[in-house]
Amino acid sequence: MRFSGILTVAAVAAMVAAPAAANPLSRILAKSGLTPQDTNIMRQAEQTLLAEVQGGKRAKWANPDSGAHGNVQVAGKEGDCVLLQHQAFVKDDQTAKQVRRKFCPSAGKWQLSQ
Q1: E strands within the chain?
Q2: Angle at CA 75, nearest 5°, toward 74 and 80?
Q3: What is the domain range of residue 72?
Q4: What is the predicted pLDDT for the residue at 14?
Q5: Structural domain count, the chain
Q6: pTM of the predicted model, to two decimals?
Q7: Are 41 and 66 in contact (CB under 8 A)?
Q8: Higher-confidence residue: 33 or 61?
Q9: Alpha-carbon dihedral of residues 45, 112, 33, 20, nearest 10 degrees?
Q10: CA 76 to CA 83: how far, in whole Å?
């Protein structure tokens, strides 16, 4: 995995971290090329899929302000948990940044799992 892909994984995972992590997150986002608005749009696409989990289902997203775009799809299940696979592109870069996130049910909601 390329360094930028690792930064993207860290950036998206950090989106659910405590507010105290905001400064490191902003530095990570600045290096990855994704903006906070990009990751918010990515998370909205995740929520669309989590509302009706079906294997292979895909949601596209785009941020016209930054030029970033991509998609997220249900990549599989692990027990009761759902694996979502992100593919993101920043403006002027044709190299996809790959992120896989795992969500598990907790108290009637989907929670990011490690």
Answers
A1: 58-62, 69-78, 81-89, 97-106, 109-113
A2: 80
A3: 3-113
A4: 43
A5: 1
A6: 0.68
A7: no
A8: 61
A9: 130
A10: 5
Distance (Å, whole) CA 77 – CA 74 = 8
CA quadruple 51, 53, 87, 113: dihedral sign:
positive
User: Per-residue pLDDT averaged across 43-65, rounded?
Assistant: 88
Residue that is written with structure tokens 């009637």 in the block? 108
Single-letter amino acid code for the residue at 55? G
Specify whether the CB–CB gap between 74 and 44 falls below 8 A.
no
Count Cβ atoms within 10 A of the Cβ of residue 105 and give its class: 0-12 exposed, 13-18 middle, 19 or more buried: middle
User: What is the mean predicted confidence (pLDDT) over 6-15?
Assistant: 43
pLDDT tens sequence across 79-92: 999 999 989 898 88
> Which residue would you say has higher pLDDT here, 19 or 104?
104
Strand partners, 14: none
Is 17 strand, coil or helix? coil
Residue 35, number of CB atoms within 10 A of its CB:
18
The total number of residues written for the chain in this structure = 114
User: Which residue type sits at 54?
Assistant: Q
